[in-house]
From TrEMBL:
It comes from Geodermatophilus aquaeductus. One of its GO terms (biological process) is rhamnose catabolic process. Pfam families: FGGY_C (PF02782), FGGY_N (PF00370). This is Rhamnulokinase. It comes from the Bacteria. InterPro entries: ATPase_NBD, Carb_kinase_FGGY, FGGY_C, FGGY_N, Rhamnulokinase. Residues 13-249 form the Carbohydrate kinase FGGY N-terminal domain. Keywords: ATP-binding, Disulfide bond, Kinase, Nucleotide-binding, Rhamnose metabolism, Transferase.
Length: 491
């Protein structure tokens, strides 16, 4: 990795997830890339009047607290923000927020799907935006808001990381990796699709100017500097979709790799130079989202660790043991494939009693439902590994990109049982780590933008390989057993 004359930098990486946010302090310099968590805060969605919403002001307060804590560690040279995708805050003519962003798991978004598809059929929509159909993509959210007083008053829509950056700097922009998840960006031109907006009766003025990862969004306002104790610090556009930052944080060699960015969602795919807009890709549920340095994240959204998280929450609410480490240890002793399910079944999307839903799906497919918590956990991890196997194979076939290794990054890299099962299922080595891939990718893009690093993704990833802890899992077991398990899901 070439290090420029800027030397070592100290960078604040704001990384927001579905259950918590944190501010990480990264120090990047010659042969150095390390992270320290300086502040973590909860992210608790709130249901009011039947609508599930994000407490975005609470998140912003957590970000300010984190920046204040970062400043106590010394000078901060830059700030970058990444978060989940698709959800937006609407601003009025004065730039004030018109209510909290609606949560992507709220059912209201689905009400607009039929109306949108009546105007732009799904196959035509895919040829424009290249996105896997998900009923909560931003275009469905905005379409569902049409006719409301809030929508009538809206003059701009900002995705969550862009909204937070606006409050920090006063600048309103749309970072392109997150913009590519809205369904309103043309996958080929990589610009907003004005024709699509017009046909869906969505005002063009809602969408701000696009910026690329590495561009400076703005500098902290005087009010923010006074509140945090920081100086004239730039806020840098990073891969503001957390998966875009996580893919930067994949320590790959070359391009023959698949990635599993494993958190609440698992994003499984390959990195390409251009989108794949085939009908076969649409039918398989593959999406073309933009990455850093003009790359395309060709991937499929898999339900992910949400299944475990909701199961633990349900058990805790009923007074049952809910320690994940203990349950995973017990699950490792359960015979493989006692029961398996399609983790992408839409019944698993809303919050609720996931173990009961798993039991129902097993009964419907002629399987004995799990009889214990350990069997439920084993069902989930076996089923996730099956989904990763299916998705990696499809990504290879649809893109023509051969895969020699699977990189599993994010919180799931701590789950040794899941990592080993993924290696067994895919029949390829799994390299697990780094756990903090999104925050690391966030920091790397900042560091390059501010002159501390030179080179492209390959050089960034070389620094990751020499500084981060990685664990390799070698495949074992029978491919035929995985084939048989897959056949049970298809019943």
């Amino acid at each position: 990795m070439a290090i420029s004359a800027a030397g070592e930098l100290t960078l604040a990486a704001v990384d927001l997830g579905a259950s918590s946010g944190r501010v990480m302090l990264a120090r990047v310099g010659p042969g150095r890339l390390d992270l320290t968590e300086v502040h973590r805060f909860p992210n608790r969605p709130v249901r009011t009047a039947g609508t599930l919403q994000w407490d975005v002001l609470g998140l912003y307060a957590g970000v300010l607290d984190g920046l204040r804590a970062a400043g106590r560690e010394g000078d901060v040279d830059g700030i970058g923000i990444d978060s989940w995708a698709v959800d937006v805050g609407l601003l009025d003519a004065d730039g004030a927020l018109l209510g909290n962003p609606v949560h992507y798991r709220d059912a209201r978004h689905e009400t607009a799907v039929a109306d949108v598809h009546a105007v732009v059929p799904p196959d035509e929509l895919y040829r424009v935006n290249g996105l896997q159909h998900l009923p909560f993509n931003t275009l469905f959210q905005l379409a569902a808001m049409r006719g409301t007083a809030r929508f009538a008053a809206a003059r701009q829509a900002l995705l969550v990381p862009d909204l937070l950056a606006y409050w920090l700097t006063g600048a309103r922009v749309a970072e392109v990796t997150n913009a590519s998840t809205t369904g309103l960006l043309d996958a080929t031109t990589r610009q907003w699709a004005p024709g699509l907006l017009d046909r869906l009766d969505l005002p063009r003025h809602l969408l701000p100017a696009l910026v690329q990862p590495g561009e400076e969004i703005g500098r902290l306002t005087a009010d923010v500097r006074a509140e945090t104790g920081l100086g004239d610090v730039p806020v840098v556009a990073v891969g503001s979709h957390d998966t875009a930052s996580a893919v930067v944080g994949v320590p790959a060699r070359g391009d023959r790799f698949a990635y599993v960015s494993c958190g609440t969602w698992s994003l499984v795919g390959v990195e390409l130079e251009k989108p794949v807009l085939s009908e076969a890709g649409r039918a398989a549920g593959f999406t073309n989202e933009l990455g850093v340095d003009g790359t395309v994240r060709y991937l499929h959204n898999v339900m992910g660790l949400w299944l475990l998280q909701e199961s633990l929450r349900t058990w805790a609410a009923h007074g049952l043991p809910a320690d994940l480490a203990d349950l995973l240890a017990a699950a490792a002793r359960v015979p493989a494939f006692t029961a398996v399910v399609d983790v992408d079944d839409p019944r698993f999307l809303p919050p609720g009693d996931v173990p009961a839903r798993i039991a129902q799906v097993c009964a419907e497919t002629g399987q004995t439902p799990p009889q214990s918590q350990a069997e439920t956990v084993r069902c989930i991890v076996d089923s996730l590994a099956l989904a990763y196997r299916r998705t990696v194979r499809s990504a290879e076939e649809l893109s023509g990109r051969e895969v020699d290794v699977v990189h599993l990054v994010g919180g799931g890299a701590r789950n040794a049982l899941l990592c080993q099962l993924t290696a067994d299922a895919c029949g390829r080595p799994v390299l697990a780590g780094p756990v903090e891939a999104a925050a690391l990718g966030n920091a790397l893009v900042q560091a390059r933008a501010l002159g501390a690093l030179e080179g492209g993704l390959g050089e960034m990833r070389r620094l990751l390989r020499t500084t981060q802890q990685l664990v390799e899992y070698r495949p074992a077991g029978s491919a035929a057993a995985w084939d048989a398990a897959e056949a049970r899901i298809a019943r």
